[in-house]
Design goal:
The complex is a heterodimer.
Chain A (H helix, E strand, L loop, with lengths): L2 H13 L9 H48 L11 H13 L8 E3 L11 E2 L6 H4 L7 H11 L6 E2 L4 E4 L13 E4 L5 E2 L1 H8 L4 H13 L6 E5 L5 E5 L1 H7 L1
Antiparallel strand pairs in A: 1-5, 2-4, 3-6, 4-5, 7-8
Chain B lengths: L6 H9 L3 H22 L3 H18 L9 H19 L27 H10 L2 H13 L3 H8 L3 H24 L9
Helix pairs in contact in B: 1-2, 2-3, 2-4, 3-4, 6-8, 7-8
The chains are: A alpha+beta, B mainly alpha.
Amino acid sequence: MQDNLFDEAVRKKLDSFEPSVRADLWLTVAEQLDQQAVEPITKPLKTKKVLRWWSIAAMLAFGLGMGLIYVKQPHEVVYLSAKKEALKEEKDEIISSVPQENREVVENNGVVSTSPSLVKRDLTKKSSDRKITDPENKLVTAIESAAASTGNRPTIDNEVVTIAVPPYSERTEEKELQLVFLETPKLNDRGLKSREKKNFGIGEILNYVVGSVDHGDAKVLSFASDDEGTLKVAVDLKALKVKL
Amino acid sequence: MKQLYTIDDLVEGCRKGERKAQESLYRAIASKMFNLCLRYAVSEQEAEDMLQNGFIKVFQSIAGFRGEGSFEGWIRRIFVNTAIEMLRKNKVIQNTVSVDTVFDEEQQTFDMEDLEVRDLLTLIQQLPDGYRVVFNMYAIEGYSHKEIAVALEISEGASKSQLSRARTWLKSKLIMLERGGNYGSYAG
């Protein structure tokens, strides 16, 4: 028999053969498919999840950091040396704001102490506790309000008013109790100190830089800082148009 | 009512990893592929292992089937490659029969009609390992000697000689079987 005929005869014989496959073999195949399907899916997913978690955390941290830097930046003050005349003027303004007519003697219609000695009062206490009421006493209320406030407002560290109580025999209706001013109080003005240094903000510096670059009145980009220290950027589109 | 799938449906389902489609494909071709595995393996147990591994590979690589050529031909190639891989792992392909042991039998004619398929399969399984693979690939699957040489990492000449010896070996066994009148009982 020729080789090709022999091959064909064998092929034909075998092609007609359909052996029966063990019934439970598919279950084995399916089981293996399940195992192999789980492995490639779970492993990359785990790393992906971890990567995503870390990337989100990193992004949040970066965002927070940048946010903090951005929020903090406008509050930073660049201290430049200020002219002495300007500082002096500002100081005088603050001192002159205190009413002049109330500086010497203020009458008090409150409760009289029996002790002949001077009664010292803490002005930082509430007026109701002090038992000194004088609706006309603007100085006391002004100082009180100044003392009660916080921040950069002026505060009085030392006592400024004492109550002079004369001996009982010397008392008259007009002159029951007197409030006597001591030396001119030294105002501890923290705000003044900070203002002394805070003459030029970041906006002014940036404007100076932009101005020197633009060489013109109309700035394309200008910066301004408000009282709270927030930096504002303004873009002048008209100026931009002119430039183009 | 039994649901009917076209080949395209099955391929699409298998691509999506649908277990039902995979099972349907398995049921449709398992017997044919088991036939192939039985020819390459030395035992039914080894053939079952080949069948399992072959199907796993088919389902894993079905996404790469581009629809060029027949789907069954594509699956058959995967099974042949799986068989070669397993035999190579077991180092059976390297075993070759020395020239001395090959006996030249006088060319004779014999009747294949009465030959039981099981007997023929058993004979093929008994072929020396190297011969069996080359004979299966060339005579049954239709591979060229060049393709066989590449797949088995042997020379084309080695493929030709092994095919020739495989035929001779098989013919002699078939003649012995016919002479003894043991058709149908050779496989035991």
